[in-house]
Design the sequence.
């Protein structure tokens, strides 16, 4: 019976982290398109460096907030959900990065409602948020689907990295095989980022990433672009 439950959790996690989830992740590059445009990311090697650095940034702010939101939803702690949701939204320091998380969060929260997953208490907490960033909607969906916190955190990081690799495949381009090799090489980095994010104290969280912020602002006025961030 325990094995069956683990299989069910795995299938639900795969569903939640799937690129086919209709939240619009494929339309965003999170600054990567700008890095490709200016020549900072040009091949598989530089793509690996970029994505590894992106993971380290996420592990200092977005991932630990997701970890806290998972616990908050599990405990039905509406006050904590609101606090961490607002803090994360305030930490998106460019127009595009803020719009990205709110749009994807809205889409995922609507999916949670349309699919009627979880109980009323979870959905009420989610719907009570003035704005719903992606980590908040993802945490609610994971708890509603009874995915373990550890698996949900890994799944979220993997989904983010997979999207970055897809951007590299399409926009550098590096090719399908190189993309899969790149994704495989990042598995250990994802685990490191997840473990690090779980150990941070509240006062240790930081969204300090001026290089990424500048690239994001440049992308807002970039002449030719495919992605929305």
Sequence:
């Amino acid at each position: 019976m325990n094995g069956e439950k683990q299989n069910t959790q795995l299938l639900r996690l795969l569903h939640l982290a799937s690129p086919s989830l209709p939240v619009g992740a494929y339309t965003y590059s999170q600054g990567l398109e700008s890095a490709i445009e200016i020549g900072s990311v040009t091949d598989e090697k530089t793509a690996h460096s970029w994505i590894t650095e992106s993971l380290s940034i996420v592990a200092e702010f977005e991932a630990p907030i997701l970890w806290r939101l998972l616990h908050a939803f599990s405990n039905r702690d509406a006050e904590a959900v609101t606090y961490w949701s607002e803090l994360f939204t305030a930490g998106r320091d460019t127009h595009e990065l803020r719009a990205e998380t709110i749009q994807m969060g809205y889409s995922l929260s609507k999916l949670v409602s349309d699919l009627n997953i979880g109980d009323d208490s979870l959905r009420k907490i989610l719907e009570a948020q003035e704005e719903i960033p992606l980590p908040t909607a993802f945490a609610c969906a994971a708890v509603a689907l009874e995915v373990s916190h550890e698996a949900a955190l890994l799944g979220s990081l993997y989904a983010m990295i997979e999207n970055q690799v897809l951007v590299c495949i399409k926009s550098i381009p590096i090719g399908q095989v190189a993309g899969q090799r790149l994704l495989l090489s990042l598995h250990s980095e994802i685990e490191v980022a997840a473990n690090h994010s779980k150990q941070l104290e509240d006062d240790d969280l930081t969204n300090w990433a001026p290089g990424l912020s500048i690239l994001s602002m440049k992308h807002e006025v970039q002449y030719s672009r495919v992605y929305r961030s």
Remarks:
- The chain has twelve helices and no strands.
